[in-house]
């Protein structure tokens, strides 16, 4: 049986926004299993996608060419019988893998001048299209720009979490599955400029718990976000019902908790896009990034951005030193947006 190989991006949010590509590939060839080659931090996200048959974790060091290792791995892939490969990272080193594996049809963007390694070459629009469309276009003929009718037909990202996963994640986190859950994602891997201030998150947590005394507010993130989430807890006054779970759950468990949440408030981060793909009510807070480039797609979603003259600067740190694009988004503004979401869940 022929198979399809998808080589994953390195970022969680990008992996989520690539999921509609898999929906389109599966619709075109429902009989063809789809395997994903993904770095360890991103692999759990692909396991929550119904279209994925097997997730293979990349054995390569970040940034290293490791040509011999790629050649050995390619020989393993050759035996699996792939009809085609979709190379989502734009780097040369990932395009080498399907070429070395002898996969006949190798689809991707131009990237680092990958002529020959990629033999179905796509070119991005100018200005760049939103990320969901960027990846989904690889399932379509290599034409630019993507026709408007095809843009409208692109499905939304979709993740799934089972009841068993949710129950196990709640038990590990010490959360009561019978009580309302609101999830906050105060971190952002890209840099501090993308983070709504911890004090603002803390004030929002106080508002939620005052209005809903039976609620639980879970702060989610990686171990790198632990200190930021501790700042949120301190700013909130360490109330009962506020849980710092950053680094205390695996990514798969965080996915399950988000699937259980009545609403999610997040910076522009991977957890935002996970919440959107799980179709949870979500508030996305944007500062230095463009809300139109990677918006949430939930049925109930709100993007908050002040759209200042200096944004989107797309910088890791505020180049002007004030971070007004995030500092001036008041907790009360977010609370006013969150209240009707919680009332409808």
UniProtKB/TrEMBL annotation:
Keyword flag Hydrolase: no
Domain of life of the organism encoding this protein: Bacteria
Record-level Gene Ontology MF annotations: ADP-heptose-lipopolysaccharide heptosyltransferase activity
Top EC class of this enzyme: transferase
Reactions this protein catalyses: an L-alpha-D-Hep-(1->5)-[alpha-Kdo-(2->4)]-alpha-Kdo-(2->6)-lipid A + ADP-L-glycero-beta-D-manno-heptose = an L-alpha-D-Hep-(1->3)-L-alpha-D-Hep-(1->5)-[alpha-Kdo-(2->4)]-alpha-Kdo-(2->6)-lipid A + ADP + H(+)
GO CC terms, sorted: cytosol
Keyword annotations: Glycosyltransferase, Transferase
Transmembrane domains' residue ranges: none
EC number: 2.4.99.24
UniProt cross-references to Pfam families, sorted A to Z: Glyco_transf_9
Gene Ontology BP, a term: lipopolysaccharide core region biosynthetic process
Family, per entry: Belongs to the glycosyltransferase 9 family.
Name of the protein: lipopolysaccharide heptosyltransferase II
Organism, scientific name: Pseudoduganella ginsengisoli
Gene: waaF
